[in-house]
């Protein structure tokens, strides 16, 4: 059944539209003396047999370039050992609107079109070889970068048949390979990305150097929505290497808030990054702090709490959940707080731009090469065709690099000086004047029957995301109440942060489920399984990049597996367990945290996780994503948060915003559900369940409910159960 | 102008004495394997070896480095321990974004040059100054142990 489903999905997506989009037929170019054949925008085959995969999606460390290269190599019959990888420039003309990388979509949105393009290329190579050999195409197959004759030693390299292949028309029908024919998919392959990282040669944009390039550092307004009053550059200009000091005019956050939001600032342009940083320190600047100058985190917290007291209407009411609260039934309520957070990518934000008057070229590690290109066209008032966005691998992105303000800055400065400019954010800049995961407060209520078993749920989430409810898996009817939507002038500007709103959502839902289980005196894991047994399939069609419905039985399966793998309920003395179950972007992940408590300090010993992400194209990378997500979630649970006083962020570097370090890292045991369903995302589904698994374990250990992040030992001293 | 011995070669570096080695390497010498992470010695992304010790290059001015042996990730060819560490990193599939990994491997190589069989505690001590936001720590630990085993086999 699983297998049939797999073929149904791929053949469904195999319409002519995609083929015509992805296959400008027999498009050939000559580069220097070698002959290159580019049958589509994913692949380039040289007469010297070089096969280059052009990765349309962004490589942020999640391994998309390796995973997609494996898919391409398998469907084409190329060799991963010799496959070269390049990154596609931002281009809707080439890749449709499915290029920007977010929501763990890298693999799943190009899975079908990439395979179709490669299968077509393969058939053209085979047809060309068959013509050379004067035999039937059925007598030939592609493997390891050669076209082979069946039952024969004879073979032709791809490069040997380009003269013919490039003249052929695409076949009307193509056959995708069957699962059993894959040589790479399903195996822990390492691509060129791993080798480059180990050699230190990954071409991050922070390494960019162009002739006549200036290095820029910007002092940005420390308070969001503040403005520049005046500045004195005289001391900065005395710093050796400083060439120029320029004002940076702010840009408004656009309706789609990935665009705009450049803060007012003063830029120092110099002959090295260090000189620019030193020059920046010597600037004297007066700021007008504006509407947020007196505001602090507590003020926003209070705004959320005050708004909760106002009336709100359910915008989604599944199975008449609201009605099930009426008639004086017993109600149980809880609220969960999560603070502002920073992405804190190891590669600080940076971008290089070269504005030549009539055209602009940028180099940046970006999740949104197309959106960024559109935005630069808008900003510079140049046609889209005049804008080139070279997408470099990112040293971490986690949502922050979907927002293109840092690229806008480089363009703004290069437009002024008309030489290439590289803007490098200092680490302090990335904490003090960036964009942030928003502060949230989520309210949950359950109507209980006489056995304290929930009969209906109300959810009222701050800044709730339309569509977030689609990840609610349980059979208990639920009603969704929206309240405060994030406002762009609100204390700090918003960015996406690994798993975005699924993190506060998961924190609330999975802690609340635990509380409900204990109210009903049931085992928290078995309680969830019970609530998943009769749950309905949830449609996810509203999100265009999610191609699949949500199946509660898959989540239930991960729960049953994690119970077994974690020895749920059978732990040695002093070790306490907590569980969570999350579905996000059509992947499913359950996890169990094993903790101990000493002097009100939580120690996480082990996290066991089970993920169902459909077909695991590269199991080593799938596991790596879950391992990384667990560490990400643990940093938010056990380490620091972003707090604001009088408009100023209080955390400026890794000393005040610490992250999990190797000595904090627990043992991690990840299991992948075997599946041949269409691959779904793995980069985020592991995050939202981490905090609730740990908090539920803390309850198991102490009988105290912590409902806010991060966990502080003071909370454990003062909180009543 | 300074004469610095980097990866076994004596090189002229045309930069201010106060410039941290990190920026001299990256912006002046075009050796970009060493990474800027925090500028304060808090994250370890810029770790290099100076006379065999793991040092944060972001807080080490070049003025004090004449006559010292500087090793960066680009110098792995002449450093069998670092090469072994790189291979262990590759085979354990450690890197995700990879940005911190030059620094991680430099710290690990410095550890293994002094302690051929580090236990978990020794690994924690040597590696706690190296942050990884992608969360590759469990694989880093495994790779260090594998590298120690490989070095042990080579020596026997």
TrEMBL record, chain A:
Superkingdom, natural source: Bacteria
Domain Aldehyde oxidase/xanthine dehydrogenase a/b hammerhead as annotated: residue spans: 199-291
Molecular function via GO: oxidoreductase activity
SMART domains assigned: Ald_Xan_dh_C
Gene3D superfamilies: Aldehyde oxidase/xanthine dehydrogenase, a/b hammerhead, Aldehyde oxidase/xanthine dehydrogenase, molybdopterin binding domain
PANTHER family named among the record's database cross-references: ALDEHYDE DEHYDROGENASE (PTHR47495), BLR6219 PROTEIN (PTHR47495:SF3)
Protein name in the entry: Xanthine dehydrogenase family protein molybdopterin-binding subunit
TrEMBL record, chain B:
Superkingdom per UniProt: Bacteria
Iron-sulfur listed as a keyword: yes
Record-level Gene Ontology MF annotations: 2 iron, 2 sulfur cluster binding; metal ion binding; oxidoreductase activity
InterPro entries according to UniProt: 2Fe-2S-bd, 2Fe-2S-bd_dom_sf, 2Fe-2S_ferredoxin-like_sf, 2Fe-2S_ferredoxin-type, 2Fe2S_fd_BS, Beta-grasp_dom_sf, Diverse_Oxidoreductases
Keyword Iron-sulfur: yes
Keywords: 2Fe-2S, Iron, Iron-sulfur, Metal-binding, Oxidoreductase
SUPFAM superfamilies, A to Z: 2Fe-2S ferredoxin-like (SSF54292), CO dehydrogenase ISP C-domain like (SSF47741)
CDD domains associated with the record: fer2
Ranges of residues in domain 2Fe-2S ferredoxin-type: 1-76
PANTHER family: BLR6218 PROTEIN, OXIDOREDUCTASE WITH IRON-SULFUR SUBUNIT
UniProt protein name: (2Fe-2S)-binding protein
Annotated organism of origin: Flagellimonas nanhaiensis
């Amino acid at each position: 059944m699983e297998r049939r489903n797999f073929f149904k999905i791929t053949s469904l997506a195999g319409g002519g539209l995609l083929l015509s989009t992805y296959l400008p037929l027999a498009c050939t170019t000559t580069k220097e003396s070698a002959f290159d054949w580019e049958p589509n925008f994913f692949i380039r085959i040289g007469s010297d047999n070089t096969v280059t995969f052009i990765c349309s999606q962004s490589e942020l460390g999640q391994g998309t370039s390796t995973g997609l290269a494996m898919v391409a190599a398998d469907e084409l019959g190329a060799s991963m050992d010799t496959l070269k990888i390049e990154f596609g420039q931002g281009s809707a003309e080439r890749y449709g609107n499915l290029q920007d990388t977010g929501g763990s979509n890298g693999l799943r949105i190009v899975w079908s079109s990439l395979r179709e393009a490669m299968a077509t290329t393969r058939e053209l190579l085979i047809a060309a070889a068959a013509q050379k050999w004067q035999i039937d195409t059925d007598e030939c197959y592609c493997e390891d970068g050669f076209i082979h004759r069946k039952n024969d030693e004879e073979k032709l390299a791809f490069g040997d048949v380009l003269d013919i292949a490039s003249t052929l028309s695409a076949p009307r029908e193509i056959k995708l390979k069957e699962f059993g024919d894959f040589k790479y998919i399903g195996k822990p392959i390492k691509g060129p990305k791993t080798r480059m990282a180990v050699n230190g040669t990954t071409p991050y944009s922070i390494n960019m150097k162009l002739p006549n390039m200036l290095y820029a550092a910007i002092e940005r307004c420390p308070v969001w929505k503040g403005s520049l009053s005046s500045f004195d550059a005289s001391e900065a200009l005395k710093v050796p290497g400083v060439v120029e000091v320029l004002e940076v005019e702010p840009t408004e956050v656009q309706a789609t808030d990935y665009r705009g939001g450049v803060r007012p600032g003063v830029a120092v342009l110099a002959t090295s990054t260090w000189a620019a940083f030193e020059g920046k320190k010597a600037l004297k600047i007066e700021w007008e702090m504006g509407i947020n100058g007196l505001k602090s985190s507590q003020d926003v917290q209070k705004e959320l709490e005050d708004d909760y007291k106002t009336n709100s209407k359910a915008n989604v009411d599944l199975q008449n959940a609201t009605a099930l609260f009426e008639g004086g039934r017993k109600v149980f309520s809880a609220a969960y707080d999560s603070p502002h957070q920073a992405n804190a990518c190891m590669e600080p934000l940076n971008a290089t731009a070269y504005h030549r008057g009539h055209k602009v070229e940028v180099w940046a590690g970006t999740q949104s090469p197309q959106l960024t290109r559109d935005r630069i066209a808008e900003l510079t008032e140049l046609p889209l065709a005049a804008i080139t966005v070279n997408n470099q691998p990112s040293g971490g992105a986690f949502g922050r690099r979907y927002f293109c303000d840092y690229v806008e800055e480089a363009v703004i400065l290069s437009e002024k000086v008309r030489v290439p400019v590289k803007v490098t954010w200092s680490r302090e800049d990335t904490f003090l004047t960036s964009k942030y995961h928003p502060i949230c407060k989520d309210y949950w209520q359950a109507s209980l029957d006489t056995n304290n078993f929930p009969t209906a749920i109300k959810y009222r989430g701050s800044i709730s995301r339309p569509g977030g409810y689609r990840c609610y898996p349980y059979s208990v009817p639920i009603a969704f109440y929206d309240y405060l939507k994030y406002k762009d002038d609100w204390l700090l500007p918003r960015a996406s942060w690994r798993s975005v709103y699924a993190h506060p959502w998961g924190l609330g839902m999975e802690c609340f489920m635990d509380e409900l289980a204990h109210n009903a005196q049931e085992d928290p894991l078995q309680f969830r399984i019970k609530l998943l047994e009769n749950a309905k399939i949830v449609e996810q069609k509203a999100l265009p990049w999610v191609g699949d419905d949500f199946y509660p039985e898959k989540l239930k399966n991960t729960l049953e597996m994690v119970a077994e793998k974690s020895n749920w309920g059978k732990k040695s003395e002093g070790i306490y367990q907590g569980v969570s179950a999350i579905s996000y972007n059509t992947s499913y992940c359950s996890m169990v945290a094993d903790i101990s408590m000493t002097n009100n300090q939580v120690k996480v010993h082990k996290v066991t996780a089970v993920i169902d992400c459909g077909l695991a194209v590269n199991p080593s990378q799938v596991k790596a994503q879950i391992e990384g997500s667990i560490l990400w979630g643990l940093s938010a649970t056990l380490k620091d948060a972003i707090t604001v006083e009088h408009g100023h962020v209080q955390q400026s570097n890794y000393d005040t915003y610490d992250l999990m370090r190797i000595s904090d890292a627990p043992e991690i045991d990840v299991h992948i559900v075997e599946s041949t369903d269409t691959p779904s995302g793995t980069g985020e589904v592991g995050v939202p369940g981490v905090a609730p698994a740990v908090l539920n374990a803390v309850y198991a250990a102490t009988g105290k409910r912590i409902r806010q992040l991060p966990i502080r030992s003071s909370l454990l001293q003062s909180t009543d159960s | 102008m300074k004469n610095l011995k980097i990866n076994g070669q004596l090189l002229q570096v045309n930069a201010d004495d106060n410039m941290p080695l990190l920026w001299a390497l990256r912006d002046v010498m075009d050796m970009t394997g060493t990474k800027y992470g925090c500028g304060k010695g808090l994250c370890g992304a810029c770790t290099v070896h100076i006379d065999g010790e793991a040092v944060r290059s972001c807080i080490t001015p070049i003025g004090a480095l004449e006559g010292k042996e500087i090793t960066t990730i680009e110098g792995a060819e002449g450093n069998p321990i670092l090469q072994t560490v790189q291979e262990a990193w590759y085979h354990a599939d450690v890197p995700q974004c990879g940005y911190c990994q030059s620094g991680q491997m430099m710290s690990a190589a410095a550890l293994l040059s002094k302690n051929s069989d580090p236990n978990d505690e020794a690994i924690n001590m040597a590696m706690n100054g190296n942050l990884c936001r992608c969360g590759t720590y469990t694989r880093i630990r495994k790779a260090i142990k594998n590298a120690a085993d490989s070095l042990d086999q080579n020596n026997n």
